[in-house]
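Can't attach files on this board, so I'm pasting raw text. These are the components:
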Amino acid sequence: MIPRPTSHSPALGWQLGPSLAHPIPTAYAAPSSAADVCTPSCGAQACMVDGNLLEKQAGADPRQHTKYPYVTGTSVIGLKYKDGVMIVADTLGAYGSTKRYKSMDRVVKVNKHTLLGAGGEISDFQYIQGLVGMTGTHYTDSHVTSGFANALARPLLRAQQRDDMSEEKALALLHEALRVCYYRDKQSINKFTVAKATKDGVTVSEPFSLDTRWDYKLFAQPTKWAVGAW
Amino acid sequence: MSEGSGFNFDLCKRNAMLSAKGVPPPRAWSTGTTIAGVIFKDGVVLGADTRSTAGTTVADKNCEKIHYVADNIKCCGAGTAADTEAVTNMVAASLQLHRYATGRQSRLVTALTMLKQHLFRYQGYVSAALVLGGVDLNGPHLFTIFPHGSTDSLPFATMGSGSLNAMAMFESNYKDDMTREEAIDLVTRAIKSGIYNDLGSGSNVDLCVITKDGSEYLRNHEYLMDKTYQRKFPVVYEKGTAPVIKEKMVSLADVQVLEGAAPMDTS
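---
Top answer:
Structure tokens for the assembled complex are below.
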């Protein structure tokens, strides 16, 4: 059994850790009722969010615990194809505007059948990896996106994704979507990992990069006829 | 109100006093739009959706977002509808006077400079995000103008709430020296990407193709608001549509009429 990591939020239930700066109130030490917890079928422990213990602030989003994200990941794109599903993301952990960690795997294998990809606060992603089966907002669709990819990749996926597409076509479509996200998202780099889940199991690829074009003729001298424009 | 060309700060003190008293400043309404333009071999194709929104309501299902600036210059506008309409009309009128003074066809840079100087002067409070395109003696040009007054000169451009959706199409499919048909097809796909994937954009696709020989306004180039289902009214159900389970016949001759009963209340 993986020991449960400690949590910073009372709403998630203070977990007993090796040493804590503040004593835990006994009321929070155990879940309120074992019957309330929906245990996931994979056998992992569930994580229950107790809404009453969340800090009540004006306009607080009950789904958001992290107030100030530090290291963040950007877009994640997933789609279904003939043999299974693929999830892809770049390998950047950005620290504000700095490209701090350039080799982070943001798509990971959870078990023989499951992939997990995440954007947003990386520390929360790492916390979640110890808590498979978390009950939260989830979507089921033929293709899902998060972050910038919502606006940039979704039109391409809607136009071209089919549930019975071959692996080559699915990969080409994901590459196209990633390329557009890389062009237009400032917090991205040209280094990606793609993970595949089929009936034969789950594989995470080695990092790869995409060809990009920066040499369109009309980008060369934008102010040729318009001094003062950019 | 002080005259002159600088920014008028008269109301800033009032706004500061109001927000100190707890009155929130009015939220700017973004009307939600997808506008786009692309330069092809012989000219420029501009495109826009036709939905105008007021909050979450669609105010106009088929409005015109491609504004006339000159015979050879058109401008698509996103942001507050009043601002885009007023600022493009103002520049169109100024350009006409300028043409009388110079005796020449208007240049794109003239329109660009007039627009950006006006918008910068109002420090972003004139909420107009524009895609300006046209053909003049120096060839085809395409510019974007942001509400604060900055401009970019680009081969393909999108603005509005659906701009990222449309830009995804451009980034995948743009190439140098397209033909007129390829450019029209690309802009249509970009605007449709905005219409189908952005809630602030919708209805139909308007296009305008400008070349050195003139401009062609393709209003409702793609009409997507077709009613695909026509409701039949009155609805006629054939006999036998509803299964009859039981039948009971009552003869009116057996009905008793009671005299002297209370009159029906028809108030």
